[in-house]
Design goal:
The complex is a heterodimer of chains A (about 150) and B (about 120). Chain A is an alpha+beta fold. Chain A is about 35% helix and about 25% strand. Chain A has one domain: Histidine kinase-like ATPase, C-terminal domain (Heat Shock Protein 90), CATH 3.30.565. Chain A has a 5-stranded antiparallel beta sheet. With about 120 residues, chain B is of the alpha/beta class. Chain B has one domain: STAS domain (Transcription Regulator spoIIAA). Chain B is about 45% helix and about 30% strand. In chain B, helix 1 runs parallel beside helix 2. Classes of the chains: A alpha+beta (about 150), B alpha/beta (about 120). At the A-B interface, helix 1, helix 2 and helix 4 of A face helix 2 and helix 3 of B.
Chain lengths: ~150, ~120
């Protein structure tokens, strides 16, 4: 068991292929469980992180085999922060964050930010030579996962 | 993503196994639904019991095929979605689009009720 008041940090680098999403999900689930997050919080964070990595692979790196996605997980003072960085050109994230996504029910796109926002306590983007999507999840007071 | 197809009382049950995330899954799904519609099979149940998770692209795949089936005069419903997937459908309001059932019997019966 890790000491949950310490700073914990791990980094994964994956190819631009959706088949690696399962590995990312497993990694964040294992870490969050060790850090005594509740099962609901673990599922929520995994769902949001899968969405962020999917976007990085599909929209950022455009499935390029030459490009990688880097996922950093950092826990500090009760908050788990997941940063997903791609090697793409980015997008107008300030506009996307200002708008409240409310897609037509039959629209096939436009739900990524909605999902990431709904399942985390914080969502932010920045550009650092690639788009960085940052998700934060607070450890709540409910029962930790078994 | 693996898909097994079977029929129950005139409805097609698609048992999905894996992760619904887009990529090659989108083409496979689209072709499968095109084939079903061409055969006149338009009452379709998507069994999500063994789908561990879904992302927004996967939702788009379901919506695309839902629209195709509805345009052809049929319907697509889902069943046995995990709590994790149900929560995604709820957050994205797709629970208002897809009828979701806990078991196969109710899912298949829903087509009969619609056609009355």
């Amino acid at each position: 068991m890790v000491k949950t008041n310490q700073v914990e940090h791990m980094t994964l680098t994956i190819p631009s292929d959706l088949k690696y999403l399962g590995a990312v999900d497993a990694a964040v689930q294992d870490l969050a469980r060790e850090l005594l997050f509740s099962q609901d919080a673990i599922n929520d964070l995994g769902t949001a992180l899968i969405e962020a990595c999917s976007n990085a692979i599909e929209h950022g790196n455009k499935f390029s085999p030459q490009k990688r996605v880097t996922v950093s997980l950092r826990f500090h003072e009760g908050t788990l922060t997941a940063s997903v960085k791609d090697e793409g050109a980015g997008f107008d994230f300030e506009k996307a964050l200002r708008e409240e996504p409310d897609p037509d029910p039959t629209s096939e796109r436009g739900r990524g930010i909605l999902i990431m926002r709904a399942f985390t306590d914080g969502l932010d983007f920045r550009y650092e030579g690639g788009l960085v999507c940052e998700l934060t999840k607070l450890r709540d007071g409910s029962a930790p996962a078994d | 993503m693996k898909i097994t197809q079977r029929e129950v009382q005139g409805a097609v049950i698609l048992d999905l196994n894996g992760k619904l995330t887009g990529g090659p899954d989108a083409d496979m799904f689209r072709k499968l639904f095109e084939g079903l519609i061409a055969e006149g099979k338009k009452q379709i149940v998507v069994n999500l019991e063994k789908v561990s998770w879904i992302n927004s692209t996967g939702l788009g795949i379901l919506i695309h095929n839902y629209s195709s089936v509805r345009s052809a005069g049929g319907d697509l419903v889902v069943m046995r979605a995990s709590e994790r997937i149900e929560s995604i459908l709820y957050v994205t309001k797709l629970n208002l689009l897809f009828k979701s059932f806990e078991n196969e019997e109710d899912a298949v019966r829903s087509f009969t009720q619609v056609s009355r």
